[in-house]
Amino acid sequence: MTAQTDTTGSVTTVYQVTGMSCGHCEGSVSSEISEIPGVTSVKAVASTGEVTVVSAAPLDQAAVRAAVDEAGFELATEA
Questions:
Q1: Is there a contact between 56 and 9 (Cβ–Cβ < 8 Å)?
Q2: Do residues 31 and 75 make contact, with C-beta atoms less than 8 angstroms apart?
Q3: Residues 6 or more apart from 24 whose CB is under 8 A from it?
Q4: Which residues pair with 4 in a beta bridge?
Q5: Measured between alpha carbons, how far is 4 from 20 in angstroms, rounded to an integer?
Q6: pLDDT, tens digit, for every residue of 30-62?
Q7: Exposure class string for 36-73: b at 16+ Cβ within 10 A, else e
Q8: Residue 68 pLDDT > 90
Q9: Sign of CA dihedral 45, 22, 36, 68
Q10: What does the alpha-carbon distance between residue 36 and residue 72 come to, in Å, rounded to a whole number?
Q11: What stretches of 1-79 adopt beta strand conformation (E)?
Q12: Are the beta carbons of 41 and 17 closer than 8 angstroms?
């Protein structure tokens, strides 16, 4: 995971998720992560396995892992 805080105070974090292979996969992961309190945007890219999350504050990795698990995929590492 790579985290960066921008000038507005938002935190952008890139996670590596394994098992995504299509747009439906991207949507499932994005939908589950979007439900975590404080998340303002999520962009999942199946071809790279990267999921970029913008949030108001740093997220609890256990919450992100649980959301990815709920979507049926695995949080591999922080990119």
A1: yes
A2: no
A3: none
A4: 12
A5: 24
A6: 999 999 999 999 999 999 999 999 999 999 999
A7: beebeebebebeebbbbbbbeeebeeeebeebbeebeb
A8: yes
A9: negative
A10: 16
A11: 2-5, 11-18, 39-45, 50-55, 74-78
A12: no
Provide the pLDDT for residue 3. 61
The residue count for the chain? 79
pLDDT at 79 over 60: no
Burial category of 15 from C-beta neighbours within 10 Å (exposed 0-12, middle 13-18, buried 19 and up): buried
pLDDT of residue 9: 77
In the block, tokens 């299509």 appear at 22
- What would the mean pLDDT of 4-27 be, rounded to a whole number? 87
Q: What is the pTM of this model?
A: 0.87
pLDDT at 8 exceeding the cut of 70: no
